[in-house]
Write a structure and sequence with these properties.
This protein has 79 residues and is α+β, with helices and mostly antiparallel strands. Helix 1 packs antiparallel against helix 2. It contains two helices and three strands; from the N terminus they run H-E-E-H-E. It is 47% helix and 27% strand.
């Protein structure tokens, strides 16, 4: 998979999860993809400082990205 295809698939995964985040007043943006196996994202809006944002990140975002791009090993939130 090329870097461009990888990025498109990660964006597709984020587009799938974004409506759930937006319904709670939050959002997410892709910051970078490193070594073709690590994704950095930025949680935004109400997701910032939310007490369950780490659970959302691992159970929702990371799971959805791995479904679209199995080679991704981790998803990291950056401030």
């Amino acid at each position: 998979m090329t870097s461009e295809e990888l990025r498109k698939n990660v964006e597709k995964a984020l587009d799938e999860i974004r409506p759930f985040l937006q319904s709670d007043g939050g959002d997410i943006s892709l910051v970078s993809i490193e070594n073709n196996n690590s994704v950095k994202v930025r949680l935004e809006g109400n997701c910032v400082g939310c007490s369950v944002n780490q659970m959302t990140l691992k159970s929702g975002v990371e799971m959805t990205i791995k479904k679209h791009v199995p080679q991704i090993e981790q998803v990291i939130n950056v401030d």
